[in-house]
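User: I'm curious whether this sequence folds into something compact or stays loose and floppy. Could you predict its structure so I can see for myself?
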Amino acid sequence: MYSLIVFFPFIGFISGSLFGLFFGFGTCIITTFLIFCTFLMSLKLFFSVVINNGVYKLHFFNWFSNDILNIDWVLNLDSLTSVMLIVVTFISFLVHFYSIEYMGHDPHQPRFMSYLSLFTFFMIILVTGNNLLQMFVGWEGVGLASYLLINFWFTRIQANKAAIKAMLVNRIGDFFLLLGIFAIYLLFESIDYDILLSQVVLITTYKISIGSVKFFFIDFICFCLFFGAMGKSAQFGLHTWLPDAMEGPTPVSALIHAATMVTAGIFLIARTSFLFEFSPLVLNFITVIGALTAFFAATTGVFQNDMKKVIAYSTCSQLGYMTFACGLSGYDVGIFHLSNHAFFKALLFLAAGSIIHAVSDEQDMRNMGGLKKVLPLSYSAVLVGSLALTGFPFLTGFFSKDFILEIAYSKYTFVGHFAYYLGILAAFCTSFYSTRLLYLVFLSNSNGNKNVLLNASESSFFIKAPLIILSFLSIIIGYVSYDIFVGFGTDFWGSAIFILPQNYSSTDIEFLPIFFKILPFFISLFGIFFAFYLYYKNFRLYFAIKKSSIYLFVYTFFNKKWFIDRIYNQILVQNFLKFAYKYTYQNVDRGFLEIFGPMGLLVLIKKFFFSIKFFQNGLTYSYLSLMLIFLIFIVFICLNINIINIFLIVLPFIILDYDN
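Assistant: Here's the prediction. I'll summarize afterward.
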């Protein structure tokens, strides 16, 4: 029965892509119902894993087999997979349900619903894979589905650019992931998770050399795997595609940011934790990159004006938290924050879609305001989601976000404290831009069009119901799941997540000074009050700050995303294109390849036929002589006669012909 978890979303995709023209609106009902059935089976699997504390292996078929590699298509259903399935299928169901109304005006709604089901299908393939190659099929599939969904409105040039950018940036990470898979096979002669887990202890001392530099093979493998995760989970350096992905419809943003695509990298690190645990160098690198991502995205989000981009940068920041939690060997806490984050981030995006829908597709927060009384449900949803995002006490984000920061400080290492303090700064920025969003959209005086504001209203049941459900879960889900996922002494994860005893830090958290436990809360609270003070109580101070030249520089720097996109486009990409044109195109394509390729062959043939044209002299005996020569040549070739003898026989005929 659990195998239907995979097949139901695929059937939904087929119903929309092949028969959407005939089913029409029925495609929405079919795809949504099938995803709901998938969620129910995922829920049953979750409780079965919790109660029985077991692992299920469902063998489908032998994918391919040869002398050196045997790959079976097997579903690996353990505690980690069951958690991911709950998150993916539940959020996907709500997004499908929400899209019935949100995309109802679009003539291509069946195609959109089928793409959502395809996205869900590939994400399920990714999380249920029993080996790295099976996982890679889902990995590439979610990349394809994201391209189709971001570029759904394909007549918009910005959507085209965003989809291509997402695809190309992810290809960089995918290249390194493939390299890591090849290296794993070279070292282990297998890519099955169970075999890798049983053999990893035996190869931790293996080294490779590049020139005179030697390093551990396990470090190389883990670096490649993490670079792959950096692309999918939008870590610092390969993050540039994520904000631009907002060009797609809002339900797409909710699905990408909450349950699919960006969570794939965190899942990969957790699934291969048995490799990363034996590579302290890579773990430190992961921690640093995650902390930088959290800080970078949070500071950038403060100065964004597009509502969806503010929420997108908050996703990037929270992914940084999850990443450096994994770098500190807190894989269970990282997955815990991933599952919590899925609910309130889906809530924020779907609420943003409801607001945008109500104000005639306006996304600039500076052109909104005064919507608290007009859109009370959306205001309540954004308020709950924002408080959960900031880690307000006893809401969902509080239980996992503060836990991550406590792990960082309890390591008592330079890297751990580096992550802790950058995480606190990111928490301040998160509270600030969440409060700023609430104020500019709902609490300030209206800056929008009067007619738009007068006609704004809440949407139908299809949009309201997901907001109500997610609001409720964003309040309680962290408290309910805390003891199961990361409670002291819990054995929920079993063998799905591997942590070396010396890296386990949950015990050390119990003895952490109370000051460092409550500091993140007070920093977040300060961010809320500081934003409220600037925007509401003392706007003149804020206006005076905005007029200063220093603020102009700061605003430009952070609003332009630290100029990283400009560095990529103007320094790296442009210089690469110039180099490619000057050397590769002019000297290789138009030079070497043309000389020895089609142009050179054409010139050679022309010269050859020009040199033999004198044989066309119109004399019959000359043609007969040539025919005789070639006939003799062919006969002697067939009789294996020496080339020299052939030349001696033919030579008199040539001389006689020239004498005539």
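Summary: The CA atoms of residues 384 and 471 lie 6 Å apart. Strands lie at 56-65, 70-77, 207-210, 213-216.
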